[in-house]
Amino acid sequence: KLDWSADHPWDTVIKAAMRKYPNPMNPCVVGVDVLERRVDGHGRLHSLRLRCTRSSVLILGTSRTLTYIKEHSVVDPVEKKMELCSSNITLTNLVSVNERLVYTPHPENPGKTVLTQEAIITVKGINLGSYLESLMANTISSNAKKGWAAIEWIIEHSESAVS
Which InterPro entries does the entry mention (predicted)? Predict the structure, then answer.
């Protein structure tokens, strides 16, 4: 579990998070498709997206270069909370990664946003499973840093495009 904080209001961070890809900080993401988007009876925006990444997973015994991740997000503008859950849909016979991100306003400073990130990694049928789980956890942590950098980049470029 990781906690991050950004020096921007929640609504600014959420707008950037929804436009996070593509970005120069994480070039392995080659595409994001919106499969479904709707607003429920409580005014929450539900999005189902498919993210395609280019990756090398030779350590898992495959040379697959494209992997797909399913993302479901719920943005609640009244509660000021965005929850994004993602899971891989390729290579699930080898590894499952289920990630949950929650964006909320900072409890003491509404001009800042807090991200809580959790990931559950399960490696299947490989003797070095615990090693690979640790390796993947480090990768997720590293990608989280890139994700915050990408959000900052998007906010900066959005503001410069407006001014």
Answer: PRELI/MSF1_dom, Slowmo/Ups
